[in-house]
Specification:
The protein is α+β, with helices and mostly antiparallel strands and 179 residues long. Helix content is 25%, strand content 44%. It folds into two domains: 76 residues, ACT domain (Alpha-Beta Plaits, 2-Layer Sandwich), CATH 3.30.70; 92 residues, Alpha-Beta Plaits, CATH 3.30.70. Helix 3 packs antiparallel against helix 4. The protein is flat. It comes from Kiloniella laminariae.
């Protein structure tokens, strides 16, 4: 079996996921995992698919036939990744007044500690009691086991104060810390 990663972006329309999944299924493929969303009238997604080696080329060609002016598709062949060593999974929630640079500041603080972002979901909405825009983020991170959780907490505490946001860290084993 071959594994591929696909990114899809295009004008949102009914039946788009149905077309993708039918094409994959018609070629003996298996839809393994995906993240998809509607953003400002556009459909955006990333998915991982396994397909029999002998069907790979024909499936890719069939998927390319779905593209056009309103849909773009990029296919990458999965390779074995670099072993990053043992990792600990943590979850961060960020909430506070919106302003430019929040994602950059948080991602930079994590990158300086060699912490990878496994997934991130962000949103901006009007505040319930004011017209102020509120930023929120759910971030799953992979932390090398040699990086102490306390050092992450300290760094994020300083950053939360600087950005004027609340950050909550959860070790996914039941321990939640408000930073």
């Amino acid at each position: 079996m071959a594994n591929i990663i696909m990114t899809v972006i295009g004008t949102d329309r009914s039946g788009l996921v149905d077309q993708l999944s039918a094409t994959i299924t018609d070629h003996g493929g298996n839809w393994l995992e995906s993240r998809m969303s509607r953003l400002s009238g556009y459909f955006a997604g990333i998915l991982r698919v396994s397909v029999p080696e002998e069907q790979l080329v024909s499936m890719e060609a069939a998927l390319q036939h779905l593209t056009g002016d309103s849909l773009q598709l990029v296919i990458a062949h999965e390779t074995s990744g670099v072993d990053e060593g043992p990792q600990k999974a943590l979850h961060l929630e960020v909430l506070g007044p919106d302003h430019p640079g929040i994602v950059h500041d948080i991602s930079h603080a994590l990158a300086t500690k060699n912490i990878g972002i496994s997934s991130i979901s962000t949103d901006c909405r009007d505040g319930a009691m004011s017209s102020e825009r509120i930023f929120s983020a759910d971030i799953n991170i992979s932390v090398p086991v040699d990086v102490s959780v306390e050092s992450i907490r300290d760094e994020l505490e300083d950053l939360a104060n600087e950005l004027m946001v609340d950050i909550t860290m959860d070790d996914l084993e039941g321990s939640v810390v408000q930073i």
